[in-house]
Amino acid sequence: MLLEKIHKSGIVGAGGAGFPTAKKMNAKAEYLIINAAECEPLLKTDHYVMKHFAEECIKAITEVGKMVECEKIVIATKDYYHEEIACLESAIENQNAPITIHKMNNFYPAGDEQVMVFEVTGRTVPPTGIPLQVGCVVSNITTMLNVYEAMEHDKPVTEKLVTITGAVNKPTMVLVPVGTPFSTCLELAGGTPLKQFIFLNGGPMMGKIGNHNNFNDQVVTKTTSGIIILEEKEYLYQLHERQINQIITQAKAACIQCRLCTQLCPRYQIGIPLHPHQVMRHLATSDVPDDIDDDPVWKQAILCCECGICEVIACPMSLSPRQVNIYVKQRLAEKGIRYQYNGEELIPQPMREYQKTPPKNILLKMGLEKYVNNDLSELITHETEEVFIPLKMHIGAPCKSVVKKGDRVEKGQLIADIDEGSLGAPIHASISGEVLCVSDSLIQIKKDVA
């Protein structure tokens, strides 16, 4: 059974938060939407998959479509991906697959799950809801490649395709074992000329930021899509250096209530009742954090998808509504306060088509336009000597080791599993070798010496 193979192979969403794919696909839906929009600027992982593995992806998508008994199978991508679309269309024709391609304009965040559902179907997913509530199941194109490997070869997820770009000597795509240190990936890209740098684990807008001091602690997981190396002096460094108390003080003092953060918010544009400017206004009259309570304005922050448009593009005062929303969400979560959708009609904004954010504006604001033309056509496949495999690479409960120190494991062998009934996905050895360490958070494996 395909669903069981997907679960046993440990497949999770390849480019997002890592929701277990078997759980998501255990449903019946009107639409199966495949996300092939590569949401973040500079990342090219999904591009590579579409160009080089179109036949495999189309075969997997067709079978998944049968499994969820959908009426429509749609691959949603950007209309300027000419070469990628040609490869997909050729594979669809070769297999006579019941799949259509929905071509979207080039805007950010086209790859956001709820934005994509609206683009394809015209339906708005209810606040705090999931696409299934409007008849849709959404999955990433690279996730479908992993489904193909499970379906055809019983192959679990042991490797990850990753974009390495930015201030590196040789920007490239790498295929490395899960658990490979970021430092190894940087070496494969020829290193960096920078003595001190910041890095993004993911894209410029929603990636997790760090610096050279904690770079060596990072490893490739099932959800790692890209590693971007940047100078410390760049806009992103300045943006993320601010502490939350500074952010709140600046917001109280300088917010001019222009509403641009709301007008350009992708969730607000599709009808979600999120108004970031109202949350910012609440700060001006509140004693933070004591006054953050069960208030309808504060609870709007829960609906924020943290895309970053409000702080990078919208705000003329260089404030950070996103960081404020994140902070408010955390305080509400600590108090156990949740958002309750009251069933009101969700009305998309009539000016949405004219207020979408072009990715080029983001890159110009961040000073990253110089990396747009980095050649990422080459793929380097690397067999890492030592891996550090995290036991939590997905939404849900962490896995528990089923091996112990001193055990010898083969690549693809089950090394950690979830408790029955828990949300999660099993984890497999990404190289063959000896287990050097087992902790509550990771399993370390060293490759056999020939």
UniProtKB/TrEMBL annotation:
| Pfam families in the cross-refs | Complex1_51K, Fer4_17, RnfC_N, SLBB
Which terms in the Gene Ontology molecular function aspect does this entry carry?
A: 4 iron, 4 sulfur cluster binding; electron transfer activity; metal ion binding
Domain 4Fe-4S ferredoxin-type, by residue range, is 246-275
* GO CC annotation terms, alphabetical: membrane
Keyword set includes Aminoacyl-tRNA synthetase: no
Q: Which InterPro entries match?
A: 4Fe4S_Fe-S-bd, 4Fe4S_Fe_S_CS, Helical_ferredxn, Ion_transpt_RnfC/RsxC, Nuo51_FMN-bd, Nuo51_FMN-bd_sf, PduS, RnfC_N
Cross-referenced PROSITE patterns, in alphabetical order? 4FE4S_FER_1 (PS00198), 4FE4S_FER_2 (PS51379)
Keyword terms, alphabetized: 4Fe-4S, Electron transport, Iron, Iron-sulfur, Metal-binding, Repeat, Transport
> By what name is this protein known?
Propanediol utilization protein
> Which organism does this record belong to?
Vagococcus carniphilus
